[in-house]
Specification:
About 15% of the residues lie in helices and about 30% in strands. By secondary structure, the chain is of the alpha+beta class. Strands 1, 4, 5, 8, 9 and 10 form a six-stranded mixed sheet that branches. The protein binds the ligand Nc1nc2c(c(=O)[nH]1)N[C@H]1C(S)=C(S)[C@@H](COP(=O)(O)O)O[C@H]1N2 and molybdenum atom (MO).
């Protein structure tokens, strides 16, 4: 082999480099230029608003549990102690709420969804996830997006235990989708073969919810 590239190779290499720089074809958090950080139609806030159905459950840690069910090799039922014994990760990410506020640089600590899935071992037929919370809330997303490298089952925000109003003791954070996908007070994760609508998705919100494509509401 020679080091010399054919014109075709170098053209491909150039466009691949450009795609990489632009984050083309990638889902999830990518290195976007700072000027591109705010998705269309969003404005920046410094505070952290509380939004939910108005029923904020208070869950005692000794009765808290997390279940992983459906298309997995190993169904899981984790106590708080079991959950704390899983590998802990820290990620920093932005929040984009469909009601048009965004908040930059939130520091989360908890269990990376990938680490939980490593325990449960999704079956090959698992393509989507339904999340069910202690307040009865549900929301759906593709398994690949649930397993994004910066998706986290968060128990702390900015170094403090996650407060009950924001979904404590544990909530999901999926930074690359609108925040309604980030279930607070998460109780159960079901791996499914096909997509099904959760609460807001049955009420006119988009099935996927990509802020960069402004997928706020469903088409019909
Ligand atoms: N369990 C549960 N999770 C939920 C909701 C809810 O009502 N119940 N609301 C969603 C919506 S619409 C938003 S915008 C975010 C708000 O999270 P925050 O109150 O921490 O800002 O939580 C999401 N997760
Ligand atoms: Mo929301």
């Amino acid at each position: 082999m020679t080091d010399q590239q054919t014109p075709v190779d170098s053209k491909l290499t150039t466009s691949k480099r450009r795609w990489a720089a632009e984050g083309k074809f990638l889902t999830g958090r990518v290195a976007r230029p700072e000027t591109d950080r705010l998705p269309p139609g969003q404005h920046l806030v410094k505070n952290w608003p509380v939004l939910d159905l108005g029923q904020q459950p208070s869950i005692a840690l000794d009765t808290w549990k997390l279940e992983v069910r459906g298309l997995v090799e190993t169904p899981l039922t984790l106590s708080w102690r079991d959950f704390q014994a899983l590998e802990q990760s820290t990620f920093v990410s932005d929040i984009h709420c469909v009601t048009t506020w965004s908040r930059y640089d939130n520091k989360w600590k908890g269990v990376a969804t990938r680490d939980l899935l490593d325990r449960a071992m999704p079956k090959a037929e698992a393509n989507y996830v339904m999340l069910t919370s202690y307040d009865g809330y549900t929301t759906n997303l593709p398994l690949a997006d649930f397993a994004a490298e910066d998706a986290i089952l968060a128990t702390a925000w900015e170094g403090q235990p996650l407060t009950a109003d924001h979904g404590g003791p544990m909530r999901l954070i999926v930074p690359h989708l609108y925040f309604w996908k980030s279930a607070k007070w998460l109780r159960r994760i079901d791996l499914m073969p096909a997509d099904r609508a959760g609460f807001w998705e049955m009420n006119g919100y988009h099935m996927f919810g990509d802020p960069w494509r402004e997928q706020r509401y469903s088409e019909d």
